Structures are given as C-alpha cells and as structure tokens.
Amino acid sequence: MSTTTTTRRLTMAQAISEATAQEMARDPRVFVMGEDVGKYGGIFSATTGLLDQFGPERVMDTPISETGFMGAALGAAAEGLRPISELMFVDFFGVCFDQIYNHIAKNHYMSGGACKYPLVITTGIGGGYNDAAQHSQCLYSIFAHVPGLKVVVPSNAYDAKGLMTSAIRDDNPVVFLYHKGIMGLSWMSYFEGSTNEVPEEQYTIPFGQARVVREGSDVTIVTLSQMVQKSVLAAEKLAEEGISAEVLDLRTLVPLDRAAVLKSVKRTGRLLVADEDYLSYGLSGEIAALVAENIDTVRLKAPVRRLAVPDVPIPFSRPLENFAIPQVENIVASVRGLMTFKLDQ
Amino acid sequence: MEATAEQLLWMYEKMVEIREYEETMAKVYLEAKLPPKIQKGLAFDIGAGPVPGEMHLAAGQEPVAVGVCAHLRRDDTVVGAHRPHHFAIAKDVDLNAMTAEMYGKATGLGRGKGGHMHLFDPAVKFSCSGIVGAGAPQACGAALAAKKLGTDAVAIAFFGEGAANQGAFHEALNLAALWKLPVVFVVEDNKYGISVEKSASTAIASNADRAAAYGMPGVLVEKNDAVAVFEAAGVAVARARRGEGPTLIEVKTDRYYGHFQGDPETYRPKGEAKELRQHDPIPTLGALLRSRDLLDDEADAALRARVSARVQAAYDFGRNSPYPEPQDALLHVFAE
Ligand SMILES: Cc1ncc(C[n+]2csc(CCOP(=O)(O)OP(=O)(O)O)c2C)c(N)n1
Predict the structure, then answer these.
(1) Which chain A positions have a beta carbon within 8 Å of B266's beta carbon?
(2) How far from B6 is each of A198, A340, B232, CA to CA, in Å?
(3) Which of A36, A318, A327 would you mutate first to test chain B, the one with the most B CBs within 10 A?
C-alpha cells in the first residue's frame, strides 16, 4: 500500500459491496443477481447501494429459483460475462447444487481447459443468533471438497474487499462465504475486529495466503471467518495466563496455504484447529492430516486438537446452540489442555 | 359446498386465535431486542430476548389456513413453509408445545431443537420447513403413502407465491398429476417474496394458470376471505379424497407485518400494511356470522375470552418451561 492511501473504517458488508461496485465500474461485464440483492441491498447487506449506482440491468433481483439463476450464471460466464450470483444462505445450496458441483465446478476441466467460467457465488454462513439447523451452517468444506471451486472465507473488512476484488477478477468459479455475525449488521450482535480500516482505492489480496493475525510461540490456532475473532479473544485471555497463542487466519480454503500452517506449527509445536463447520470429514481433519503427513519435519509437543461442531445439526435453543458452536471459552480450554499435555505421560 | 354453522364458527374462532397468537408473538419477540438493553451500535439484536432467531408472522393470512383446514381430519397431512403458525394452529398443533418450541424450551415440539420455522407434530401430521419450496414434494410423498396404504387421507402443501418459482414446486406438480395423488397445493399470494414483488418474480399473474400445464385443475381465489377459500378448498379436498387427483389453488392474501420481524420494509409503499388492515377478514366473517344469527356480542366476547386464555396459557407455558440441558444438543441426530 502506498502512503497516500485514504482509509476509513468499514463493516465487512460495506467492504464487499464497495469491492463489487468498484469492479462493476471498472468492468462492464460484471453484474450481480440473486434474491433481494436490489431494493433490499441483500439480506446481509452485501449488495447495499449497488442498485442505485448501476440500475436493475446490472443488479438483478431474481425469483426464488436458485437452480435457475446459478445455472444462468454459468451460462452467462461461458459467454464472457462475469456474474456475481448470491445464494442468500449457504444452507440453501441444496436446491441448486447440481449446477454448482457438476457444472460450475467441472465444465472447465471437462472442456480440457477450452471453456472458462469467471463467476462468483456469494453466500452467508454461520450461526450464533439462534436461526436453527437450516439457516446456521458453514458448509465451506463441502465446496472445498469439490475440485474446481476456489473457496474464500474472509474474517474482516480489509480482507473481504481485497479478496472480493480478486474473486471477481479470477477466471475461475469462486465461492465467497461471509459469516453473518461479522458483517456489521445493525440487527445482529457481532464480534469486534471485523470492522476495520479499508483503503478507498482498489486492491487485491491473492488467494492462498494465510495471515498471522497475532503472533505467538506456544501454540498455533488455525482458524478462519468469525472464529478468528473468537480465537483472538481467547488468545488475549490465554496471554494473561502466560500462554502465547499464534492465530492463523486461512482466508481461503482453496487454495490452502499449507506452508503457512506448517511453518507456524513447526515453531510452536502445538496445533488447535478452531472451526465452525462440522467436525468430521472437514477442514479440521484436512489441517490435522496436513500436519500428520509432515510429522517428519514438525515436532509436536502434544497431539493435534480439533474444535468444531460435534456432528450435530445446529440446534435452535440458546443453550443448545452455545454448546454446539465452539465459543471463546472452548478455545481457551482446548489450548490449556494442549499446554498441560505431557508427551511421555 | 356451503359451510355449516359449525364450520363457520370454527373458522372464526381459529382466525381470532391465530391473530391473537401472532400479535402476542410480535410483542414477546421484541423483548430485550431493542435499546437500551442491547449493546452499542445495534438497532436490533436478532439473537437476544426470550424468542431469538428469525420470526415470520402470518397475521392477515388467516383465511388461507382456516378455509383449507376446515376440511381436514387429524389423519390428513399438512406441510407448511417458513411462515407456519397459521397453518399449525388451524391444524390443531399442540399450542403449548408449539410455543415452548419458539422459546427453545425442553417442553417444545422439538425439545428446543427446531424453533419457529421447524415445527413437527406427528400427532396431527404437521410439519414445515425453512427451505422455500421444499414442502411441495413432501406433501406428494404423504399423498403417495395414503394411496399405497389404501386410506382416503389427503395432503396439503402450503407455500408462498415466491416458492412457486422453485424447481421443487414444478416437479411436485408433475408428480402429483402423473400419479393422481390426493394432494392439494395451496399458494398464498401475499404479493411479496421478502422484498421482491410478484410482478418482478413471476411472468404470469396467477399461479392457478400454471395448473393447466401439468394437467390438474387450477383455482384462483381472489378475495382474502375465509368463506371463499373454504369453498375452493372443499371442492379440491373432496376431489382428492375421491381419488381423482391433485388441485392447485392460489389465494390472494395480505401480510400485515414485514417479511420477518425487524424487516425495515423499504420495498413496501408507505402505509400499505395499514391500508391492508382496512380489509381485515376477521370482522368480515364476524359480520357474516352475525347476519345469520350465529354470533352476538356476548358470544363474541365469550369466544375471545376463551381464545385469549388458550393463547395466554401457551405463552405462559413456553416462558415458564425449563431450557434443555446444553449437552442435549448431542441427542436425536439418529433414531435409537
Ligand atoms: C431455498 C430457499 N431460498 C431462499 C430462501 C430465503 N427466503 C425465505 S422466505 C423467502 C421468501 C418467500 O416468499 P414466499 O414463498 O412468497 O412466501 P412468504 O414469505 O411471502 O410467505 C425467501 C427468499 C429460503 N429460505 N430457501
């Protein structure tokens, strides 16, 4: 960043819509479609202001027809347009997943590289406000599991703007998942840290580069999305106890910055993966496997720990949801457990 | 098919009950969500208060629920949508347990697992879903089961005009017509799918016209009126019970509240909701009852007192019930 850059504090929602607006202004091929993206400005405010600026031809409210408009995004991308297609909640991907995982993800490959599909799917993820099992999931691991989709999961406004700009400019399908609890919505409590200084100028953040949010020497917490904010709070608490936790924000799942994970864990010798997705067959297993595969070079002082949703749908009731979704206290307790572990015991 | 005195009175009482239920919820839902109790910078905290999460109220849409459910038996299936209370109440879902569910209590229909969009009462064969359009094929399944089991039970799928643009809706219509299933699809056209007006989401004016494409009768009920819905539904349910196949009904109805509680409703012309309340279907039915000497002031007051007691008891039950234990989150992923 040059020194002349002007910055303001933006919410993550504002940062995403600003990135989108700037790309739309720069490139007439970019357009947005989805449910309530127009007048409403997106249920999670990811498209606020775009309709006024660009009109209904480029900011299209769609019918509730996800298969239709996801497939249409693919078709339009094949013709050289650059659609941004919003799936209101990630939980709804089920109604349109064939278009996403059999076509959007694979057509480039099946064409032997002949066809390109530059499109972005944006979608809201995460719980914490009692919206129950069909409106609270993260599910990014499912998208990351399917080859051919890049998967971006920002944790703050600065990253969100740079990553969104990269997503729109990418010639591949990119799934961009934002956690509702860090968008800075006026109707939802959220974790501080996601609203931050954002340059007015356009900038990009390359995919596949994790960010050290907080340096530490005793333990590495690998995390992403809203869990970054929770992990920072946990790290502050742990610091009071003399435990130095490093917090690593993955930022993108595909591509995954494996080197950054290994580098940090090599230094600290302890790994906690803090994830808001389901435990089994997901991100936390992927990161644990990465360390296991490199155990010849990573000397662990304790077994890897994973903190995630314990393979139950997200329950509605407050005490149940608090239990199912990892909280700051759970991160603290897990790290304490890692610190007191004795390899020879 | 004309409604009997008993049916008219039943519909009236249920409409009063639904309305009271929704208006009570509108108040309870706001508790602890607004300043000054909430943290700085927040206008509204959706996760706070005794009833957290999203809340979609159906005040104004009572005629659709009662007009259809007046024809149903306990063993008929109803699949509702994300805006489910009016259907649930009209289908005689246990009111206490339903309310406790919205409070997230252990005594709730789903022991606090489901919440307001996910109500399941197998005793009266009621279910619903937060996924728009998902109910239509599920109602086909219930109807298919009735056919296979040789009962004359029917299934109803209720959903909004927005949902009628989902693939699931169109697949369900084809299946139902193809297999001659005893199912009735009921579209509530309240003009909006969240902020998107029907005219901006649907290329034709009435979903009833779509029925022809699938080979089933399509009926448009143009008035938000319980008797009008009752008449259309009576024909459709009887047809289904006789084994003659499905019907698609669209009812023009009104949503008095926002899409969800807290909706800024910037998409809605100012004062529209107030204007809609001028055509409230409850006094309309009340006046009809009076004109037939089926209701007078005294009976109306007694009915309202009865309803209030029921609704109040349900809210008290919900509020005073215990929360589940946190670890109960781990239960019920699989059947034992
Ligand atoms: C598959 C799916 N897509 C989108 C949504 C988000 N959503 C919830 S309600 C709603 C509008 C539904 O409109 P309509 O079917 O007309 O019913 P109404 O809300 O008017 O009762 C939308 C888009 C959802 N829950 N499920």
Answers:
(1) 39-40
(2) 66, 72, 18
(3) A318
